[in-house]
Specification:
Aminopeptidase; 2 domains; 13-stranded mixed β-sheet; Acyl_CoA_acyltransferase; GNAT_dom; N-acetyltransferase domain-containing protein; acyltransferase activity, transferring groups other than amino-acyl groups
Amino acid sequence: MTGAQQNGSARTAPEGLTLRAWEDGDDLRLLEVFGDPVDVQQHQDRAMLAASSDTPWRRCIVAEVDSVPVGAAVVYASSLHPQRLWLYVETAASERGRGIGSALLDALRRIVTAAHAAGEVTTTALKSRYGLAPEDTRTVAEGEELPELDLESHAERAAQAEATGGFLAARGFTRIQRSRRVAVAARSVALPTLRTDQTPEGVSLEESSTGSVELTRAVAAFYNGVHEWDPAEMSLGQAQQMLLGPDTGAAGAVVLRDRPGADGGAIRAFAVSYTAERQEDPADVLLGWDPELEDAEAQQAVADLLALLVAQHPVQIEVDDSMTALAPIVDGLLTAGYAQVLADASVVATA
């Protein structure tokens, strides 16, 4: 969520403000006033802005001042997370603090209330997220100099995050999660012992088809297990559709077992790559584990698989605070200077 007014108090919308439904071409019109997204998260959030629909249920509106688009907002229902509706609001930087964000949010809340009364949606609870200014935890190769931090840009993002957080808090939103995208440097985690004839106590690393039923079950169980804060109902079909199928960009997968699958070894941790070819940037990887493992076992499995993933090349992973087997490992790498926060967000929701 971007472009909240600078404090939590209500403001009168500017003269000439009108709200209308999303129209074809609004994405290009708004890009002219919004500018380029500041990070991957904002790029993803803007992709939510689209024409209203009933299946899936989505309502999107645009704010205009004197017939010029200056903001937009969307709310939509997700069958995967049915307890809350996703909300995204953005206003042009030059128009912030004038009450446009409030007008958009208030309008969507009225729409949601009416839709709930009509039985079109099952809830009026909302959730949103806004970017935080990442901490300066950049990594650098030996012998190179650390690039200078853009203090002005960092200060602007910190101020915007504070303003947006205040705006949402004043409207009944409270924090329910922190979500980060983190790059982990190559050779930053101690390698585990792999299982061989000489080391039968070692872990077993195996490639897996992204269409594997076993992997699909593991992915769905993991996703549901780490989303108790926003209960998920991911089915095997949704796991394929959203995380593993051809349209997701999934390029390959590996699984970690305590013994080979042929000997009955169960998946303890898995990694799905969304980077088809080797490149300079860290490969995009989904890292997960068996939620039925004890905490210590899960953390060890995650550490072992992460070590194998970064044995030669860096990776980037998503880390929510609810991922209790992964978050402590990542925090340790950040503290030691072996990881870098690429995006940092606070997820907030109404009661």
